[in-house]
Amino acid sequence: MKTLRIIMFTTFYPPYSFGGDAVGVQRMAQALARRGHDVTVVHDIDAFLTGGGQRPSSTNEADGVRTIGLESRHPLLTNLLTQQLGRPIIHSAQIQAILDEEHHDIIWHNNVSLVGGPSLLDMGTGLKIYEAHEHWLVCPTHVLWRHNKELCNSKQCFRCSLSYKRPPQAWRYTGLIDKKLDQIDLIIAKSAFSRDMHKQFGLRHEMTVLPYFLPDMRITDQPAPAHHDRPYFLFVGRLEKIKGLQDVFPAFDKYPDADLLILGDGEYTDDLKALAAHNSNIKFLGRKSLDELTAYYRGALGLIVPSICYETFGIILIESFRLGTPVIARKRGPFPEIVEKANGGALFENEEELIAAMTNIQSDPNWRTEHGQTARQGFEKYWSEDRVLEAYGAAFAKAAHNRGDVNLAKALEAGALENGA
After folding, report:
1. 300/236 Cα distance (integer angstroms)
2. 5-214+384-413 architecture in CATH?
3. Residue 223 banded pLDDT, cuts 50, 70, 90
């Protein structure tokens, strides 16, 4: 099998990262390395540190992925210049040197907002991919959450940026993104919903839907369910207002038959604890290790996913599906297409429907078992590593043909992204 040279650009990459999009990039990089490819990830340490991150005591374990962290003596200025001008002013020479070091078969852009901005997209040669983990292509705040208080249904980008205490970006009004995206051979959306939102908000380029994946897990490898002396529903994720957890608390004031266990932390933690202080059935357990998290998933009646913003996907849904645990997700964004595709749970729009869904799961073990099984089957069919990498390989091969790179297209058609170890 042909070894491909692949370079990936992303603003955040573990352990210099905050959220799930960086973990998704890491999973892909590791999967490609397991398939024998030469993978380099270029990320921006400056962005992590200026965003409030603490320098980690240790970096990634050896996983076959080469990482290059961009760092300057003046990180705030470096990021401000990139954010304002849409180009990697300080790190441009280093990036160009990395790209000139060797020919790359694939140049794979992820969240490039601060690692280089839109002007990064036409640097280097090779098959060029852009993967939209967020809505940054059409939204300065990335999340289509207008004025930090409501869903965005029409652009008010200048005032909205100010509400987030971010300087507006003049380059967004110059057509720079459209011009640079013309150099990209394949643009990926993480869900049909996200593809449609990009189009609705003005993206003129075609997008191909390719979802996230999780490495599969043998049932015998799974730890026992987490010990908890009462039935419980689970919330997993960063504690931010847009994740909607505050909307769930009133339902648990009226539903005393189960606890709500909250795994995660974030800037909204103290506010949430204050809102839930009167209810002893709501418990904040902080961040957990992967093994602990898996155990809590397995023991839960169901996973509650109440995000009030427009997500691009929903990795925690397929994390739950992988372990045979059904979900109760807000009927918003990509969640309906994911839940319905796997028949993996229930959807809700209001408090009454949330309580009804919790009651149904807890009072009807057969319903939970049936939807847990179909959730697991859906994961294997649509979101397991081998299935998703097969779809990526086919999409990349088509893009390589369109570009005229026959040799790369043949390698991809022969399964270069498939057959993980």
Report:
1. 11
2. 3-Layer(aba) Sandwich (3.40)
3. low
Q: What value does the mean pLDDT take over residues 77-89?
A: 95
Residue 204: burial class (beta carbons within 10 Å; 0-12, 13-18, 19+): exposed
- H helices within 246-289, ranges in order? 249-253, 269-275
- What the block records as the tokens of 57 is 């005591």
C-alpha–C-alpha distance, residues 135 and 195, integer Å = 10
Within 232-329, residue ranges assigned H as helices are 249-253, 269-275, 290-299, 315-322
Is 0.70 surpassed by the pTM of this model? Answer: yes
Nearest to 296 by CA among 235, 387, 209: 235
Question: Which residue ranges does the chain devote to CATH 3.40.50.2000?
Answer: 5-214+384-413, 219-383
Closest among 230, 323, 319, 345 to 283, alpha carbons compared: 230
Residue 143 token pair: 């999340």
Write down the architecture of domain 219-383 according to CATH.
3-Layer(aba) Sandwich (3.40)
Q: For 147-288, list the strands marked E by DSSP.
A: 150-151, 186-189, 208-209, 232-236, 259-263, 282-286
